[in-house]
Design brief:
The protein is of the alpha+beta class and 228 residues long. It is built from 5 helices and 7 strands. The strands form 3 sheets. A 3-stranded antiparallel sheet has the order 3-4-5, with no helix packed on it. A two-stranded antiparallel sheet has the order 1-2. A two-stranded antiparallel sheet has the order 6-7. A hairpin with a 6-residue loop joins strand 4 and strand 5. Helix 3 runs antiparallel to helix 4. The chain is elongated.
Length: 228
């Protein structure tokens, strides 16, 4: 339940309330997220390990997926559980104009937000998605170029070279010299290319979300998941 606003009873300024959860509700949400992570993440990492047996790559992909699940799945599941367990929530209002402070309890199905406030929120959400799109594009170009440069170095250079060398008491022996720069840049190549792919996918998603929110009416936005 978000986006609750009221007019200040003293000065008439529109103030957005902040939900005040009890310690019990905070602990319930935190326990829900932790419990989901405890049971689901091992399954996900096990699947990744099966299809991608390379330790470093599998670990990096597992980290990205774990972050995504925590932000997009576990948090929403904890919020949904909280909404189902409690029918109302207290909201704290602090007027920045006159300093008046008050608290009011709202039912979860209540929505008294004015259309003007919703319109501003909708524009902010669109700007946020567009800003994310631009950031993802820039990051994908930068990391893509760096990753490609690392790949080119590894492509034109050998990771090791051998030569004959005189060894005391043993005569001539074949000695292998390893190019540790090749291994380091190879690792960076994997990291940067994974990050590049992640940013490309995120850029596409942000572009779609911006167009979707921009095409909403105020009433559609009122009942959407994009509400603050």
């Amino acid at each position: 339940m978000n986006g609750i606003t009221e007019k200040c009873p003293k000065c008439g300024n529109v103030v957005e309330g902040k939900m005040e959860l009890t310690a019990e509700r905070k602990m319930t949400k935190a326990a829900t997220k932790k419990g989901l992570g405890y049971f689901i993440l091992p399954v996900v990492t096990g699947i990744i390990g099966t299809f991608i047996p390379i330790p470093i790559v599998g670990t990096l992909i597992g980290v990205f997926i774990g972050i995504w699940l925590n932000e997009n799945v576990f948090s929403k599941a904890a919020d949904a559980l909280d909404q189902s367990m409690y029918t109302s929530s207290p909201f704290h209002f602090d007027c920045p104009a006159c300093g008046h402070v008050w608290t009011r309890i709202y039912q979860h199905d209540a929505d008294t937000t004015p259309d003007e406030v919703l319109k501003r929120q909708q524009e902010e959400v669109v700007r946020g998605f567009r800003s994310g799109f631009r950031t993802n594009v820039v990051c994908s170009v930068i990391f893509g170029v760096i990753g490609s440069a690392c790949w080119y170095y590894c492509h034109v250079n050998e990771y090791a070279s051998t030569h004959m060398e005189d060894v005391w008491l043993l005569g001539q022996m074949e000695v292998t010299d390893y190019n540790w720069t090749w291994f380091f840049l190879g690792f960076l190549m994997i990291v940067f290319l994974i990050v590049t792919v992640y940013n490309i996918i995120a850029a596409v998603n942000n572009f779609k979300e911006a167009k979707n929110v921009e095409g909403m009416t105020v009433e559609d936005f009122r009942h959407s998941v994009y509400r603050k």
